[in-house]
């Protein structure tokens, strides 16, 4: 029987797309062994190229991981931006779509997500390279979508009562990341709570927005945003 990885190599590798093939190979290895559980040579082997070939694009494994994170942030930002859709049809319904898009990305691209938000890496493990990717324009664009959503949601408050928007955006990101990590990356919370990740995130964010005073007082008004 033909090794499935060999079939993937034949389908994926074409002259000129070596960089993309190596990034995809890295994602597969990350899913199996974790962000730092493989070498550049192993990525080359899975991609079906010589051990020297990756050095045309990446100086080492950490540079490859940084590219996984950077390209992940590009797709992540695009998904968030599409979900937010400039706050249409309403800021609240678009905000709820934004939360769902966040979790969907974490579920669809677990390897990219894990590297994008890798916080336990030391400099020796490539932490510096990943940190640089997390500060890239694509990562900033993703945060700016959350910032735009925060501004739209808080706009109804009197200017003197509006909280710092960057802080609100960071709170939203932190809550979303926590739910994604517990329910999707680790999966442990899903066994203890009879709710989906989406339900937990939505209820948490609504409680948070209620505390800020940006939701209507009437429950019926707040529930009619979809």
UniProtKB/TrEMBL annotation:
Against PROSITE patterns, the record matches this protein to: HTH_TETR_2
Q: What keywords would UniProt list here?
A: DNA-binding, Transcription, Transcription regulation
- Please name the GO terms that the record assigns under molecular function: DNA-binding transcription factor activity; transcription cis-regulatory region binding
- Pfam families noted in UniProt: TetR_C_33, TetR_N
Q: Which residues bind DNA?
A: 39-58
- Write down the superkingdom of origin: Bacteria
Q: Does the keyword Transcription regulation apply?
A: yes
This protein's record includes keyword tRNA-binding: no
SUPFAM superfamilies linked? Homeodomain-like, Tetracyclin repressor-like, C-terminal domain
Residue ranges annotated for the HTH tetR-type domain, each copy included: 16-76
PANTHER family the UniProt entry points to: HTH-TYPE TRANSCRIPTIONAL REGULATOR RUTR, TETR-FAMILY REGULATORY PROTEIN
Protein's name according to its UniProt entry: TetR family transcriptional regulator
Source organism (scientific name):
Methyloceanibacter stevinii
């Amino acid at each position: 029987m033909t090794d499935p990885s060999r079939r993937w190599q034949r389908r994926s590798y074409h002259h000129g797309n070596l960089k993309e093939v190596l990034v995809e190979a890295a994602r597969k290895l990350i899913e199996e062994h974790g962000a730092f559980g493989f070498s550049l040579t192993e990525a080359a082997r899975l991609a079906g190229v010589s051990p020297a070939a990756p050095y045309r694009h990446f100086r080492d494994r950490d540079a490859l991981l940084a590219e996984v994170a950077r390209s992940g942030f590009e797709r992540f930002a695009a998904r968030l931006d599409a979900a937010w859709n400039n706050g249409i049809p309403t800021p609240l319904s678009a905000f709820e779509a934004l939360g769902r898009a966040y979790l969907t990305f974490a579920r669809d691209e677990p390897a990219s997500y894990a590297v994008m938000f890798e916080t336990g890496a030391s400099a020796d493990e490539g932490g510096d390279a990943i940190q640089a990717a997390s500060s890239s324009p694509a990562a900033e664009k993703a945060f700016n979508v959350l910032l735009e959503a925060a501004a739209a949601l808080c706009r109804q408050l009197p200017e003197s009562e509006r909280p710092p928007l960057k802080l609100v955006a960071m709170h939203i990101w932190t809550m979303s990341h926590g739910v994604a990590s517990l329910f999707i990356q680790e999966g442990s919370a899903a066994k203890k709570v009879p709710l989906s990740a989406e339900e937990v995130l939505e209820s948490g964010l609504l409680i948070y927005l209620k505390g800020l005073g940006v939701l209507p007082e009437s429950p019926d008004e707040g529930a009619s945003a979809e």
